[in-house]
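Researcher: Good morning. I'm working through a list of sequences from a screen, and I'd like to move beyond sequence-only analysis. For each chain I'm collecting a predicted structure so we can compare shapes side by side. This is the next one on the list. No need for commentary yet; just the structure.
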Amino acid sequence: MRFLVYLVLIGILAGLGYLGYRAIQHKKAQEAVAPYQNIYGDNIYINDVNISRMTPEQALVAVTNRMHQSVHSWSLDLELNGWKYFTLNYPSLGINYSDEQFYPFLNQAWALTHTGDVYQRLESINHLKENPYKVYTTKQELRDGNIDQVLEQIAAVANREVVNAEMIEFRPDDRQTPFLIRPEQPGVTVNVQEAKATILQMAATGESGTYQIPVTYTPPTITVADVKKNLALRAEATTGIAKDSTENRTNNIRQSLSNINGLILKPGDVFSFNKVVGPRTIENGYLEAVEYISGNLETGVGGGICQTSTTLYQAALLGDLGIVRRSIHSMPVNYTEKGLDATVYLSRDHEIDFRFKNTTSSPIYITAHVHKGTSSRNLACTIRFYGEPIGEGITRRLKSVVDQVLVAEDKMVPDRKQLYVTYKDETQLISKGRDGYVVSTFLQTYQGGKLIEEKLISTDTYNPRPTEYWQGTLDRW
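Model: Good morning. Structure tokens for this chain:
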């Protein structure tokens, strides 16, 4: 009996001892787990960020800060021709983050040391000390569609069609720059696919910096130099306006020049002076001035415009254009050499025209002005032809040669009414005559100052005019 009591006591003591041991072990476990009650366990990493012994709030900040640094650690400036069009970064390519995406990973890491009883939690805490826990958020893929959109926007601005140089305005009154030329521009095409492939590679490797967008240039087929080749000063002719030229005469020259100034002759076109200048009337701006009519000096509306036609004729010769119709005056004029004049006349029943043809393969652009001459008191009439060049180092001159002088003879006019003289041995001057001339005109071509060609243009005859006298008709007794 006593033995049995001992056994019971021993059992009770053993149970109490076990319970005490368990209590001690539980207390030790609680004491070991207690420091981790509000923090993460040791050796816990999210995206290589050590969140060990951090509170959930601290862990979220640490993880998001590291992600922020990673996302914004790469940038790429897209440049073209010195202009920065766009700056790429990971967010612009669809790689970004939000706090919410880390919640599952943080919760899972939290559960490692905060799930189960105190012993399970302690076991997890101790396990982590030897076996680190590492987890990574899902890797995001680059969205190449975003690159396409950026490059297409750049291409919309940078791409341009090739533009050939072109003469867009003829300004005949601008003597320094008569032609406004639009310069050529090469075509530009952004190489989108090449750029896209390179950008994706740089983004994947984290290579930051500046990227020059590749383009393809298409050269123009016509340059400013090409345009200027057919806008060369082909010919220039000037005749001086005499000091004693009246204001009316000078006005008529200006008026006729204004009709010609700015004219463009296409290849094959024939210029007609009378058609372009039109009738010489008061209504058309012409005034009365001295002119040659049938060998006599008379006053008529439009007097003086033959100086315009003469200057135009000389420009046509120097430009080596085709002379279609041209007539000389009945006598030499004082504003040019013999053989270099061209007279014009227009009335209802009679016409003398000057015509020439553009025999080149390009347009002829004409400027015509009255301007100051060699001195401040003198004026001059100048006509310029622009078009195909006459050749490198080539200049042309006109040469007038008097081949023969036709001496004027005396002509006796009987005064049958005895108005001026009576007897046959009496004479009285009616009009003074003038000599005539046979004149050859040559076009001389020089290269580098050396005469290389001399071509006969025309041979003209100015008929002499006899000196006329009244002569009596009666004999003396």
